[in-house]
Each structure stands twice: as structure tokens, then as C-alpha cells.
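Reference record
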Amino acid sequence: MGLGLAMSFGYWCTDFLVVQRAMIARNIAASQKTPIIAAVPKMLMPFIVIFPGLIAVALPYFTEGYSLPTGANGGPDYNMALPSLLSHYYPEGLLGIGLTALLASFMSGMAGNVTAFNTVWTFDIYQPYFVKNASDRHYLIVGKVTTIVGVLASIGVTYLAASFNNINDFLQVVFSFVNAPLFATFLLGMFWKRATGHGAFAGLLAGTLAAAAVHGLTIAEGKGGWITVVHEFGSGLSHAFNMAWIAFSVNLIVTVLVSLVTKPKKDEEMKGLVYSLTPKVWASEGPWYSRPLTLAVAVCLACLALNFIFA
């Protein structure tokens, strides 16, 4: 439940970068295809991430003159697996191109996340709740300052990430705090018209606090247990996945309970926001093999096949 529901759906359905690209599509068909097409390279990403590491570990046993760089602890620095492979196999000209492409991919993702951060803060939080009727110049300055703060915060977080065995473990912990409870809020908000704003806020707060409590009361690979240790998980991923499903479940329960005792909005105000009150539009133009439903089924089958093969 932690990975298959809370974390996976939480990423695809609440990630600003994915949703943003779907919202700027030229029509409904392109909008529906956006996450489906994006799922194809995402399914191949484990090959790109895992294979270079496996090659870098095995290569010293088969090739003379190659070894992984040494880390601060005196052991192999696995974070440098891909750069070390590039420097070993690429000639000087191609090495520059390869490193440039690697840095460009990192910067592209970072730029998208920084843009998402300043947009959400400026237009979804600052403008509605703090300064409602300021000039465009004022909001532009706020956005620029938010960008600087976001970059500085991300630099600070890298020191925290460095304490984890790998970046994937750290990301799963972050997602369990943020994406898992947020997905529960999205889910109820889209499919249950009785959900209220007070319920959503209370549920989101409770879910995040639940994740923090689990992290503080349990430990895995030396991480967590900052309150006290009542249970030890075998791996960091198991730790994060359990935090995710607990945060998701707590959010659902609290949102439902608070929504039932607070006043809901009228149906007229919920049109276009709740699935049951929104006119259904299905893209049906074009050949059958290019329609969103066909592509979605194909991607699901491919994902199931990969999981079956590599399970």
C-alpha cells in the first residue's frame, strides 16, 4: 500500500511538474496523453539508474585500470559511478558533451522544481492569504525572493541527503512526508463532494504529523528514532513505505471525520472540481491506437510485464 498506492499515485497525481505539463496541453486529448507518455521513459529509468552502478561495481574485476573513486570513509564512492564510467570510456571531446548532458538534465529538473515552488507559494499561498490586492511587480519580486530562498534551502537539504546511503532512500522519506498525505487530500477532494476545506487542512496536517511520528519512533539504517525507538525496520525503503501508508491512512480518516462535522459547499460551487459533478469529456478523435485509453492500457500492460519479469 505504501509504494503501490500512496507513493506511486501520489507522485503521478500530485507532482507539480507532471500536472503542469498536462494543464498547458493544446487540447483534452494531449492533456490526457501527457502523463501516459511520460510513464514510458519513467519505466525505463531503473535501467538507466541501476545498470551503470552494476557495471561500475563489476568492471574492476574484468578491466584493468578502472576502479571506483574513493569516498570520505575510505570505501568506494558509489555516487560517482556514472561520472567515473564517463571519464573511463569517453574520449576528451565526448566526455565534455556527456558531462554537459548530465548537468543539463539535473539543472532542468531543478529549474522545474524551483519554478513550481515559487509559483505555488506566490499565487496559491501568499496572494490569497497574505497580500491579496498588490501590484504585479510586487508578486514578481516575491516570486524572485522565493526562488532565492528555495535554492538556498535545497542547498541546505543536500547536507541532510548526504547522510543517507543513496538519494533514492532520502527521496522516499521526503515523499512519505509530502506526497502520501497530499495524495489522500487530492483523492477525497476529487471524488467525494462532502469533503470540506477544513477537513482537507486537518487531514493534511494530521497525515504529515503521523509520518513525522512514525519516523521519530522507528529506525532503519541509523535514520529516524529521534523520539525513541519502538521498532526497527530492515531497510530504509521499508521504513519510508510504512510511513507513507500510515500518513495516507491517517489523512483519509481525519479528513472524513472533520468534513462530516463541518459545512460543505453547495453542488453549484463544486462543478469542475469534483468528478461526480463535472461533465465527462473523453478524447475519441484520431485512430484507435493513438487514443488515451488505448495508450493507457498498453502502458499498464508493459508495467505489469516488467514487474513480472524482474520481480
User: Anything to note?
Assistant: The first strand starts at residue 218 and ends at 220. The first helix runs from residue 2 to 14. The chain has a mean pLDDT of 85.
